[in-house]
C-alpha cells in the first residue's frame, strides 16, 4: 500500500526537513503487522515527493488477529488489509511521521505553520459510501479531489465499480494539518479499525481534529466511524466538539456592552465569596475562566475543575500556569477529566459546586444522570447553576424565531421551565432553591441568563 506526498513549494526539499526523513536515505520502521518504508522517488528544489510504502505481513496479521470472534472464520487469512489504505496506514503515518504531525521541526521551524501546496496520492482507498461520501469528506476541507474507482471484475464490467478508489488530493495546507486529517479520515472512509477503541482514541480524535473537525458538515459521521460506532464515546466526543466554553457563538443583542459570560462568572464568584466558601468544584470548567477568577482570591483554599474535554483541560492548565505554581500552592488547584453523567469519587468533599452554562448542552434524557451525580452522589452544601433564558431571545436581532443562541444547545428554558425543574430537584434531594436574573433586565422578558442557588439546611 503506497501513500505519496508531493510539494512544489520552493525549495521543495524542505519537505524532508518537515518529515524528519532525509531524501537520500531509505528508512524502514517496523510495526506490529509489518514494515513501513519511507523513500523519495523525486527530490529536487522544484519538486519533492515522499513515499510511505506499507508492507503488511499476512502471517503477522493472522497471528495477531486470529479467527476467533470474526463473522467470517477465515477473515484473518482472507482479507484486503495488506493491499489497501486502512487503519494500518493511519498507524504507520502516526509512527513514521509523528514529529511532523505534532508540528515540530528543529531545522526549519518557520515552515511548520506555513500553508504548502501539497498533493497526496493513495493507491487504493476503500470507501464505505462511495464516491460522493469521499468527496463530502474531503472537499469541505478545501481539497481538490480526483479519483478513479476500481472495477469489480474487468471480465464482467456490468458488475460495476468496487468500493476501492485510486485517490489524488490537492490542497494548500500546513503539513501537520494534512497528516492529522489523513490520520483521522483514512479509517473513517474505510469504516473499520484493526485495534481496540477506548477513551484514548477519543483524546486522539480531539487532538488531531482540533481546528477543523468541529466545523465539518459531516462531523457526526466522522466521529461515529472513527470511534467504531461506540455510542457513549461518540456522544461524549460530539459534546466536546460542539460545546465551547462561554458563548463565542452565542448571539449578542445590539446594545450589549459587557460580555454576558463575564457577568455570569462574576455573579457566581460573588455568591461563593458571600457565603464564605473555601472549597469549590467547577463542574464543566471548560478552559478555566471561572477557575482563574477564583484563583485570584485567597478565600478559596481548594479549587477543582472538571471537564469532559481533555483539550480544554490542557488549555486551562496553561492559562492557570499550574506548572509554575510554588510548592505551597501545588495542591490548591486540581484539574480532572470526567463527565457529569457518571458518579465520580473525586468530586466529594467540596462545599460548593458550580455549573455555568452546562445543562443546556446535555440532551434532556441525560439530565437525570447529572441530577443524581450532583445532588445525590456528590451532594455539596451549595450548588450554583446558570443557564440561558429563552424568553430573552427575541432581543437578539440575529436569531430567528425558535432558534437557539448556540449551535450545541439541546434546549433553552424559559424562566418558568427552569424554576419548575430546579424546584423539583430541590424537593427531591432536600435542598432549598432561590433564583436571580443575570444581565440587563427587561420587564417583559426578564434577563438574558438565569441563576439558581441550591442550599442544604446546613449551609
TrEMBL record:
First-level EC class: transferase
Cofactors (names): Mg(2+)
Pfam family, one: Methyltransf_12
Keyword Signal: no
Family statement: Belongs to the methyltransferase superfamily. HEN1 family.
NCBIfam families: bacter_Hen1
Name under which the protein is recorded: Small RNA 2'-O-methyltransferase
Lineage summary: Bacteria, Pseudomonadati, Bacteroidota, Chitinophagia, Chitinophagales
Amino acid at each position: 500500500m503506497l501513500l505519496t506526498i508531493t510539494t512544489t513549494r520552493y525549495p521543495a526539499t524542505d519537505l524532508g526537513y518537515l518529515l524528519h526523513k532525509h531524501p537520500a536515505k531509505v528508512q524502514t520502521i517496523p510495526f506490529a503487522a509489518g514494515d513501513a518504508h519511507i523513500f523519495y522517488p523525486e527530490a529536487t528544489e522544484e519538486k519533492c515527493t515522499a513515499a510511505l510504502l506499507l508492507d503488511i505481513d499476512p502471517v503477522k496479521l493472522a497471528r495477531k488477529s486470529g479467527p476467533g470472534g470474526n463473522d467470517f472464520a477465515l477473515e484473518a487469512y482472507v482479507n484486503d488489509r495488506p493491499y489497501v489504505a486502512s487503519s494500518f496506514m493511519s498507524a504507520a503515518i502516526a509512527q513514521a511521521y509523528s514529529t511532523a504531525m505534532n508540528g515540530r521541526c528543529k531545522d526549519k521551524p518557520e515552515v511548520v505553520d506555513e500553508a504548502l501546496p501539497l498533493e497526496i496520492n493513495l493507491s487504493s482507498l476503500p470507501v464505505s459510501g462511495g464516491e460522493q461520501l469521499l468527496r463530502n469528506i474531503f472537499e469541505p476541507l478545501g481539497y481538490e479531489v480526483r479519483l478513479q474507482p476500481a472495477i469489480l471484475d474487468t471480465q464482467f464490467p456490468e458488475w460495476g465499480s468496487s468500493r476501492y478508489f485510486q485517490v489524488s488530493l490537492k490542497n494548500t495546507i500546513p503539513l501537520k494539518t494534512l497528516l492529522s486529517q489523513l490520520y483521522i479520515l483514512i479509517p473513517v472512509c474505510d469504516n473499520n479499525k484493526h485495534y481496540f477503541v477506548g477513551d484514548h482514541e477519543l483524546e486522539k480524535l480531539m487532538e488531531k481534529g482540533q481546528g477543523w473537525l468541529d466545523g465539518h458538515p459531516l462531523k457526526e459521521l466522522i466521529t461515529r466511524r472513527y470511534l467504531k460506532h461506540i455510542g457513549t464515546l461518540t456522544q461524549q466526543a460530539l459534546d466536546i466538539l460542539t460545546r465551547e466554553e462561554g458563548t463565542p457563538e452565542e448571539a449578542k443583542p445590539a446594545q450589549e456592552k459587557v460580555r454576558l459570560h463575564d457577568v455570569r462568572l462574576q455573579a457566581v464568584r460573588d455568591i461563593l465569596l458571600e457565603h464564605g466558601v473555601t472549597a469549590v468544584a467547577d463542574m464543566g470548567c471548560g478552559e478555566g475562566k471561572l477557575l482563574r477568577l477564583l484563583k485570584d482570591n485567597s478565600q478559596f483554599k481548594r479549587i477543582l475543575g472538571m471537564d469532559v474535554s481533555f483539550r480544554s483541560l490542557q488549555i486551562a492548565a496553561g492559562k492557570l500556569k499550574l506548572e509554575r505554581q510554588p510548592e505551597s500552592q501545588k495542591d490548591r488547584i486540581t484539574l480532572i477529566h470526567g463527565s457529569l453523567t457518571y458518579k465520580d469519587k473525586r468530586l466529594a468533599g467540596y462545599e460548593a459546586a458550580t455549573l455555568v452554562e452546562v445543562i443546556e448542552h446535555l440532551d434532556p434524557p441525560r439530565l437525570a444522570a447529572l441530577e443524581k451525580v450532583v445532588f445525590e452522589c456528590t451532594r455539596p452544601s451549595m450548588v450554583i447553576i446558570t443557564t440561558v433564558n429563552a424568553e430573552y431571545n427575541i432581543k437578539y436581532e440575529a436569531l430567528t424565531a425558535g432558534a437557539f443562541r448556540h449551535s450545541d444547545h439541546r434546549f433553552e428554558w424559559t424562566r418558568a421551565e427552569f424554576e419548575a425543574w430546579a424546584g423539583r430537584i430541590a424537593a427531591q434531594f432536600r435542598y432549598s432553591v432561590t433564583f436571580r436574573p443575570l444581565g440587563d433586565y427587561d420587564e417583559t422578558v426578564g434577563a438574558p441568563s438565569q441563576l439558581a442557588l441550591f442550599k442544604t439546611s446546613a449551609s
